Amino acid sequence: MADRDLLPQNDFSRRIIHLDMDAFYASVEMRDRPELAGKAVVIARDPRKTGGHGVVATANYRARKYGVGSAMAAVQALKLIPARELVFVEPDFAKYRRVSGQVHDLMHELTDQIESVALDEAYLDVTRSKMPDKSPLQLASWLQERIFQDLRLTSSFGVSYNKFLAKMGSEYAKPFGRSYISPDRAQAFLDRQEIKNFPGIGKKTQERLQKEGVLTGGDLRAYGLDRLLKNFKKAGYYMALHAYGIDLSPVRASRQRKSLGKERTFEPVIYDQDRARAYLRDFSKTVAAELDQRQLLARVIILKLRDRNFKTITRRQMIQPSRDPDLFYQQAAELLDKEPEFLAEGIRLLGLSAGELEEAHYQEISLFADE
Ligand SMILES: [Mg+2]
To answer: Does 20 carry a binding-site annotation?
Structure first.
């Protein structure tokens, strides 16, 4: 039996984008500090001030030309880069997180099915996107342009039918490029790739394979599943999967938001229980509709109260995963009943949120699994 038939089959109906920001931390610093133009920028604390300690978080492309890259000891940069070009910039992770959040806001305009791998890297499942008339490659272009125009940063994209190929594609497209690997072109693309470009093939494995004449993805296929399994065990199995472009792993959407809610301030304050409840009923409907639209379920209901004197509390009630407005209302009303002094003082602010959100999809799957 051919190796291909012994391995699992791809799901060709999926559309996955891999986004990778180009030299992210360095690019953010270069954007914000024009004096860095033309310099080899190394994001690390200056090893001359740290007694030689410290590691490179990232380096811009100019520094990379000298062989400096992530995870290298910062002192190495002193040896490799001419002093007149070299600039160390201390990393500012709070800033990178902020910018990453802005990139994520743009991603969410396409889909909420986003798996963040790092501040500068994410997978998006756009099999069903929020812009249905755009093709996956058009979605990637749209995102790349928005990131460039709005944030003045460059990014690279790979588009394909699984995460592995999407990532191979974005690596290939780097910097500031896009690639689309279609089912009929995947094998030819992989066959040409050097084995060092495949994930999970470390230096030692590379050397072993090279000794056996395996230099490319095509060689890896020719080497065969049998020998891969015999010589590399489980790692060999993954090499075979990758050589054939097989990857069934889903995009694991991180919770986009921890909670989703609605609140309102009252002036004059509310003393009337029925009125407070009417608002809670209204908030429940709004929040449930929003969850429904985003295909999310809540595991907790949170009531927020502020009284006339600005005393503020939040109260939480765990629930079975749900987006049922009646359940939300009932839970929130019970929480309100336990805090009678707020109505007595007068409620200035009332809020209801759904928290600990999860993908509705997983819930449906687990229901099936129980049968
Ligand atoms: Mg990157």
So the answer is: yes
